[in-house]
Every structure is written in structure tokens, then in C-alpha cells.
Amino acid sequence: MATDPELVDTSDRPAGAAPDRPTGDQPAASRRQLRLTPRGVELLAALGALLLTALVCGYRVSVAHSARFPGHADPAFSYGVAENIAAGRGPVIDYVWHFLVPDTPLHHYAFDYWLPLPSQLMALVLRHRPGLPAALELNVALIVLMCAGAYALARSLSDAPWVPAVSAAAALVQPVVSAYAMQAESAIYLGAFALPAMAAAIYARRWTALWAAAGAFAGLAAMSRSEGLLLCVVLGVAALLWHEHSRVYLRVGLLLAGYLVVSAPYLLTNLSHFGSPVPPAAASFPFIADYENLFAPQVERSPGALFEGGLNQFFALRGHLIDLQLEAVFQAMSPIVSVLVLLLIGSLAVHRDGRRVEPARPGRLRLAAALPALRSSWLAPVGFLLAVFFLNTLIVPAVAQGGAIVKVMITGVPILLVLAVVQLARLRLNPALTAICCVLLVGYPLTSVAHHSRATIRHNNGIGQAAAALVAPLKAEAGCLGRPVVLMTRQPWEVNQATGVATVALPTGSLAEILEVARRYGVTDIENPAVRLDAPTVARALAADGPLARSAAFGSRKIYRIKAATGGARC
User: Fold this and answer.
1) Which terminus of the chain is more exposed, N or C, with fewer CB under 10 A?
2) pLDDT at residue 480 tops 60
3) Residue 466: count of CB within 10 angstroms of its CB
4) If DSSP states are collapsed to H, E and C, what string results for 416-482?
5) Of 32, 20, 150, 130, nearest to 79 (Cα)?
6) Distance CA 415, CA 426 (A)
7) Is 20 helix (H, G, I), strand (E, B) or coil?
């Protein structure tokens, strides 16, 4: 088993302890027969983890069969694009949900904001077996890959034979994983590729060729969620700083080659569509000071926009992001697990590698400790978490608070669990106490797998059913107008996915800005403009001389015609 070149032996035996010897009243051969070797303990623990994985995955697959609608925003997008690819229409969508890329037509290439790999992999499955349950079964399979990555990561960082299996089993059953297993979106995909990438990079310290595998997995992660690019950067830093038997240019070259093998087609496609290797929408993220401004008709990219509201608001937003990220860590795991992980990681401050940590002298900075930390194998997983934390806090706080924080925790939780379980082994507690901790890490969240799985399906089905209820009214409206309806709505993703009607996001702005966007895209009807406008403004817009009118097709629903686009239709 691999050992970190910078770390002290992490096995359960105290340093310098003599090997176990048989007592005088029991033959040595008999005692050897009664004891499992470390390899045997690892195998037994792995078999237990595999059995648990089979049971949990079987249950999740059974729950997935009741899924009818993908949910809100990200999953509706990813699954909808996958359906288009599988049907031969290509990676396109018939709606505009943001305005960060100027001159985007209603029917356009889908991946100008979100990344392509989740939809592409779902499409491979849907070609053979249509339906949302098939896409969710792919999720379940990717969770197995993520847990295998957690197993390999733990095994690369600890010699304790039970640590990998406990880490993988605990990652399998945490609430955030149970919830997102039932959502057809990118969060699971990032974890499925990021964790094997980290493990491959650490094992590459012994087998140089594995740098190519690390680069390939990191490339797949970067095509799943934008945080994957941070992983590529962190692994690049590791390839430069880790001093091994191979030359630095060989490590970096293999890492880059692995990345390009999987990423080159995606990068070339972006260049052909946008003239940039990455989606262009991301360039606006640092200048968005409020999440709803993500849907503004235009985002100003200037220092003035960056500090809109003054320095107080600038720092208040980033302070709030720190709170949200810490809250996300605790909510992603079961309460008892969160507390236990916090205690175990906190114990690193006083107990490390089987010995107590001596306090530093007051006023003296230990800068000399920085370089060994950077050369430690922990640079890959911990460096990734820190990079995500600082990116969300300093660069994209408004966008991150819209959901990215929780979703990245599907990758973060296994890393924290590996760190906690490795530290549990290093503490060399009483075996019974260690066993209790392991049972709590796995057993307590296991009891919530059913609740979180079914609750997610119910929630997403409810969202989809509400959107699907618009099918008949929209059809009646199209018949009245004698043309296809284009609906402006705050929920363009799920309405389009459930009804097939072209949609445009209701932009953040004044009535005049909303109507200008509607004119640009040929919008015929607007759903609930009160989401953006105050009640008096909506009332004036619905007056006899206002730009909006009620439609009999929608009854009491707050969906109104745009007079300029519908020619004053009366039906």
C-alpha cells in the first residue's frame, strides 16, 4: 500500500512498538490462524463496503423509476439537451435563460454557460433506453465511481487497512449524495471524475505514467463543472512541486497530454462557436454583485460594477459567502457526522502522525512548514477545496450563492471524510471507540438515504407537473394567435422541458427593458411579471392603454399577452 513520502507511517501500530508475539500458553501458529493480516482486514472491509454499495444502489435505482420530471434549472437543462442529442437534433436548446452572451438567438448551441459532458453521457444512455430513470441510473453508476475514487484516495494516504472502505462507505450514504443521485445534472459528474483524478495523481508519485490518467480524469471533471478547471490547476501545481524520481517536464507533459486527449474536441468546439476555449458567459461572473443580476439584459464589466454598492457591500457579500460555505459543509452531511468530522479534523491541531503537536512560540511564524505542506500528497485534495473556497468567496460570490456551493460539496464531502477517517486511524484510539466512530460515520446517514432519495423525486415531479399544467393553455393560446407561442418566464428551463414551448427568461430590469428583450425574441406572452416589477407598474401595464393584456386561454393564471406581438388578438 502506498505511503506519502512526506508523511509518517499511519498504521495503527505505535511508533517503535515491538511486533506482536504469542503468549507462552498459546502456540504461535494457532495465534496466527486467529488473526487477520492487514491485507485480510482490507479485503474484508472492502467486501462489506461493496455489499453496502450494492444494496444502496439497488434501492436508488428502484426509486429512480418513479421520476417523471428532472426538476428546476440545471437538471432540466442537462436532461433536455441530452434528449435533443439522443434524438439527433444536436446539442441545442430552444430557449434563452441568460443574456451574458450578446446576440444569442432563440434556437442556439446549448453550452455557452453550463458544460457539456453530463448531457453527452446521458445522451449515450438515452439512445438505448429513453426516459429520465435511465439518466438517473447513470447517476447511480457514477456515484459508485466517485466512491471508488474516495477508496483509492484514502488508500493512497493511509496504511490503515480499514480506512479506504470506511471512507468510501461514508461518502456513499451522505445526504447530499442521496439527494443529488436523483437529479440529472452535473454535480455527481464532478465528484465521479475529480476524486479518481486526485488519487491517480498521488499514485503517480510512485508510477509516473499515472499522471496521464490524472490529467484525463481532471479533463472530464473540467467538462462537467467549472470547478474542474481548478482541479486541473491544482494538479498542475502538484506536478511542479512534488519532487519524485521523474523529471518535472515529464510529469507536467503527461498530465497535459491526458487532459488534452479528452478535452481537445470540446475546446475546439468552443473555439468554433465562441472564439474562446471556455464558455464566454463566465467572463461576467466577477462583476455580478447580486444573484438576480445574472438575468439582467446586460452586465457591465468594469471596476465600478465590481464595487457597486461600495466597499461595505463588497466585503459583506464575501463574508456572507464564507457563512454559506460553512453552512453547506454541515448540511451536506448528517448532523452527527458533521460534528464528528469537525472534531477529527480539529484534532490535527493537537495530534498528528501519532504524536502531539508542540505549540509554536508566540509571535513566531512557521514559514518553513509551508514547503513540506505543498509537497505533501494532501496538496491535491485539500488544495482543491481551498481553491474552490477562495474562488467562490473572492471572485464569484453572487453566482456561487445560487447553488454552486452545495453542488460542489458532493466532491468536497468525500474529501473531508477521507481526511477525518485517516486522522481517526492516526489517533490510535481504543479499538471499540474507533469502531463506534466508523459506525456513526456510515450507519447514521444510512438511515436517511430513503428520505432524501424520495423527497428529491417528489420535489422534482412537483416542479415538472406544475410546468406541464401549462401544456393545454399554451396550445389554446397558440391556436388563438395562429402562431407558435414564445413565453417569457422566470422558469424557462422546466417550462420548455415539460411543454416544448420556446421560452425566454424574465430579465431583471424595468418594464421597458423587459419589453425590449421580449421584442428581440418575439415573445408573445409573459408569465407573472410581478416577479420583477412592483404591483403598481404591473397594474399600469395591464390598463387599457398599457402594453399587456389578459388572455382567455390562461384563465386566472398570471400570464399576459404582449399587445405589440399579438396584434391585439381578442380570443
Assistant:
1) C
2) yes
3) 14
4) HHHHHHHHHHHHCCCHHHHHHHHHHHHHHHHCCHHHHHHHHHHHHHHHHHHHHCCHHHHHHHHHHHC
5) 130
6) 17
7) coil
Cell of 10: 499511519
Q: DSSP secondary structure string, 176-212?
A: HHHHHTTS-SSHHHHHHHHHHHHHHHHHTTTSTTHHH
Alpha carbons 78 and 113: distance in angstroms, whole number: 12
Give SS3 for 246.
Answer: coil
pLDDT at 395: 93
β-sheet with 502-505: strand ranges across: 95-96, 502-505, 486-489, 525-527, 559-562, 548-550
Does residue 24 have a pLDDT over 80?
A: no
Mean pLDDT of all residues belonging to the chain: 90
**Of 515 and 363, the one with more pLDDT:** 515
More confident call, 290 vs 141? 141
Cα angle: 554, vertex 456, 438; to 5 degrees: 170
Calculate the dihedral angle through the C-alpha atoms of 389, 394, 398, 400, rounding to the nearest 10 degrees.
-20
User: Which residue carries 422558469 as its cell?
Assistant: 491
Task: Supply 162's cell numbers.
Answer: 480499514
Say which residue the cell 458544460 belongs to: 115
In terms of phi and psi (left: phi > 0; alpha: psi -120 to 50; beta: otherwise), the region of 399 is: alpha
| CA-closest candidate to residue 217, choices 148, 170, 281 | 148
Residue 443 vs residues 168, 205, 393: alpha-carbon distances, Å: 13, 34, 33
Q: Which residues does 225 contact at the CB level (< 8 Å), separation at least 6? A: 115, 186, 187, 189, 190, 407, 408
- Distance of alpha carbon 329 from alpha carbon 180, whole angstroms: 15
Task: Answer yes or no: pTM beyond 0.85.
Answer: yes
> Please, what is the angle between helix 132-157 and helix 74-86, to 10°?
110
Residues of the chain with pLDDT > 90, as a percent, come to 81
Please state, for a pLDDT cut of 70, what percent of the chain lies above it.
Answer: 90
Helix (H, G, I), strand (E, B) or coil at 13: coil
Q: List, for residues 205-238, the tens digit of each pLDDT value.
A: 999 999 999 999 999 999 999 999 999 999 999 9
Rg (CA), the chain: 27
